[in-house]
Predict the 3D structure of the following.
Amino acid sequence: MYNILVKVSSWQGSSGTMPGSRLFEHTEQSVASQFQANGTVDWAALAEMPAVFMEEGTGTEVARIGRILSARKSGRDVLIEYAFDPEVRPIHNRQLMKLRAELELNEAQFYRTHWAIKDIDLFRVLLRHLEPRRQQPKVFNVDELERIEPRLVAAMMPFGADFGPVHNTIKAAAEKVGLICRRADDIWENPEVIQDVVSLIDHANVVICDCTGRNPNVFYETGIAHTLGREVILITQSETDIPFDLRHLRYVRYLNNGEGRAELEQRLVARLSDLTS
């Protein structure tokens, strides 16, 4: 069995409240009766089971797995102390929505503050369907919970006046298919440049890497994008600039003039449409 506690806002800190009238909502009577007798709730028994702490919604809201440390009635509310399990990564509500049948949840529960008990082996379901925690690199950080922005394209390319028109071409191609293109110099969210670069790649749906000039930074960023599992489009002005280890992959060759950039834009529009449709 497991507890599921849903409220309108996210679960922060280590304590919270739940309206007492919402206890055992969406719970089978045969299950609820195991945790109360003569109107008295067996809080200790509830605390022995794992718990899902969920914010209302069916999208990118974050649910956590943990334990109830203590619970008691105070007026009309239940005061709850809890702890998240550090060994279980956060879960998006949309993932739980896909698993709702196996977890014995219905869609209404995702939009209702309540505390329910389900006669299901929570960890068995999660182990079968959820990916393990992301391994954290040592020289930069990635979000514990993957947060891909479906309309975001990241451009990894050399800086310099010669590449300004190329950057504008990539942006124009993205805009034609309803996407937003960003480059590392468009953001400044962290003290370290590498962290902004990695965050941009990690959040992007597609990463476009210009290998022209065999720029080592672009090669490094291409490796990060591949490691994080992003869709990568390689472009270059010279096929000899594609690293040996990547020459088995398709790439777009272009000329850095008006006609060449126009053709590059057309090919990027076609590829971006395929990847994001």
The two ends are 40 Å apart (CA to CA).
